[in-house]
Here is the input.
Amino acid sequence: MTSFTQKQLEQHKRMSVSQNILSGFRYTMEKAQTYMSELEKNYNKDLDDLVATRKELETLKKRNAESLVEKELLTAKEKINEYKELLEIERTNTKYLEEELRKYKPENEYTDDEDMDNEDNKLTEEEKVELPKLMERFYNMMDAKGVFHPYNEIPEDYCLKVKHLFAITHRNPNMRKSYDVLEPQCYSKVTELNYDHDMLGREIGCENDDEFEIGLFYTTDGLDRENIPGSGSGYDIWYLANRGLYNFFMDKLYPPPPLVEMPVPVEEKMQRM
Here is the structure.
């Protein structure tokens, strides 16, 4: 065998080995490409699943948030309705209290008055029976003298005043007063004027003018403490049935006899000289 032939055989072997290697490499590359394709396909699939899952999570979060907002909004609306109901109750209570306080004029609240609280100024039961008779006699006496309005001759000190009404209708029940009065128009008996008296208008739901009225009493010049309220269409005056009024009538009807000056003996006159 010649050297040329031997070289061709070696070259052929080398070519066969190279072809085998190249064929194996191609096969390996094809397998690798297939595997890479599958990996890419799986990656894309996983990526799509991840994106879809993320979108679903975002949707769930949004729905959950919306649900929470709706619940909170519903709770807030319920609370608002509760507050509205409470507010309406408070408004009703406030309106009632304002209507009650209108009758009391707190800026002019009653304070202690010696003449009003003095036990010595009160009449006995017998004197209460006699007082209307004294009033009638006084009226007849003044009328006989030609006095046009006999009742106007009674001093204002013995008239029921706004301060007495404030005391009767005091907003603190423990501080309310009551007074014995001669009730118009006939002044025929002594009655007790207290918080529950019909003249304060509670039984008929009396609506008062804050500036001029307390119950069924009213004034023409405001509710100053010393003003004298009247009632009825004729502005009838009420009188306090107390010791002062009783003594006033007694003094007018039965005045004491005038003092008679006794003559001075002559001897005493001479001594004085």
Notes: The helical segments are 3-102, 114-117, 125-144, 162-168, 243-253, 266-272. The CA atoms of residues 264 and 270 lie 10 Å apart. Residues 1-102 form one domain.
